[in-house]
UniProtKB/TrEMBL annotation:
A GO cellular-component term linked to this record: Golgi membrane
Gene Ontology MF, one: D-mannose binding
Protein name (Swiss-Prot/TrEMBL): VIP36-like protein
Occurrences of domain L-type lectin-like (ranges): 32-264
Membrane topology listed for this record: Single-pass type I membrane protein
Organism: Folsomia candida (Springtail)
Keywords, in A-Z order: Membrane, Signal, Transmembrane, Transmembrane helix
């Protein structure tokens, strides 16, 4: 006796559900890994053996070991940093940083900063580097100054995030960093990252045609997700990459394992190169956007939802075809 086979539709629906649930992870994997198809830039990268890396200079407490570069030891009132000594001529780039923040106790500080800045090798109060900087700072802030009573007037989005926290700051050299409020209104986006005392953690900072994206791999296992994405950021060429760290009354070891830099692989980049230089651009960020939810920009969420809907529709269509193909003739 012929009977219709219900197995295909069950499998299809299961497959559709799994695909929908996994789309955010798949999208983040694509976003984080496609830059590796771009051109590797050795002059802006840092790998072992560090002693052979003539493109980087250090200052302050920074010290080279065979396995890592320690920006600061787990001691109070330390500052240290490393700076690339080659100006960046790329209009779009991705910088992949592998690091470790660790120490004794449960309350620690202050954190690591990634810089794309006009100035280099200038110690100061902003995670070990100068204030009133010109360029981009991506701060991995391990201590929340915003918990003090003076923050009572701040928005809920700035008060409620947990530390350690990644924040994105763009400055044209005219603003003092709002250290008491962890950047406050200067913060363009970010996410919480439980990075302390992991074996290693990775972030990817990618800038491509006015879009800045920060991805995180908290456990260093190649499982990326989107921390934040901010559109409308204008950065010139000709600045320097750097990393710095600082401790205060609280402390941590801040270690860098490697920095790998790639030029963004985008077909539009050639058009921009032909039609004008970015050397004279003043760093700026469009601030007329709605506040972003922690963990990613709404533009990315919309894309994920659209892709998920397309996947479900395709799966359902396949299911209907499968049912039709297995349905007995004459019924």
């Amino acid at each position: 006796m012929l009977t219709s086979n219900k197995t295909p539709i069950k499998h299809v629906l299961t497959f559709a559900l799994l695909c929908t649930l996994s789309f955010p992870s798949v999208w983040a994997q694509f976003f984080s890994m496609d830059y590796k198809e771009s051109a590797y830039r050795e002059q802006h990268s840092l790998n072992r053996p560090y002693a052979d890396s003539g493109h980087w200079d250090g200052f302050g407490a920074a010290a080279i070991t065979p396995e890592y570069i320690r920006l600061t030891p787990d001691l109070k009132s330390q500052q240290g940093g490393i700076w690339n000594n080659k100006r960046v001529d790329m209009r779009g780039w991705g910088v992949h940083i592998n690091f470790k923040i660790h120490g004794q106790g449960s309350i620690n500080g202050d954190g690591i900063a990634f810089w794309y800045s006009k100035e280099r090798m200038m110690p100061g109060p902003v995670f070990g580097s100068k204030d009133y900087f010109s360029g981009l700072g991506v701060f991995i802030d391990t201590f929340g100054n915003h918990v003090s009573p003076s923050t009572a007037s701040r928005s809920e989005s700035h008060r409620n995030h947990e530390h350690p926290y990644i924040s994105i700051i763009v400055n044209n050299g005219s603003q003092k960093y709002d250290h008491d409020h962890d950047g406050g209104h200067q913060n363009l986006g970010g996410c919480s990252v439980k990075v302390r005392n992991k074996n290693s953690t990775q972030i990817l900072v990618r800038y491509d045609i006015s879009m800045l994206t920060v991805l995180r791999d908290v456990d260093g296992k190649g499982l990326w997700d989107i921390c934040a994405q901010v559109d409308g950021i204008e950065l010139p060429t000709g600045y320097y990459f750097g990393l710095s760290a600082a401790t205060g009354d609280l402390s941590d070891n801040h270690d860098i394992f490697y920095v790998q830099t790639y030029e963004a692989n985008n077909n539009e980049m050639g058009v921009h190169r032909i039609h004008g230089s970015r050397d004279g651009i003043i760093p700026s960020a469009r601030r007329d956007r709605s506040p972003q939810d922690e963990g990613g920009a709404w533009s990315v969420i919309r894309i994920i939802l659209v892709l998920g809907a397309v996947g479900v529709i395709a799966a359902c269509g396949y299911g209907l075809v499968a049912i039709t193909a297995t349905k007995p003739k004459g019924t």
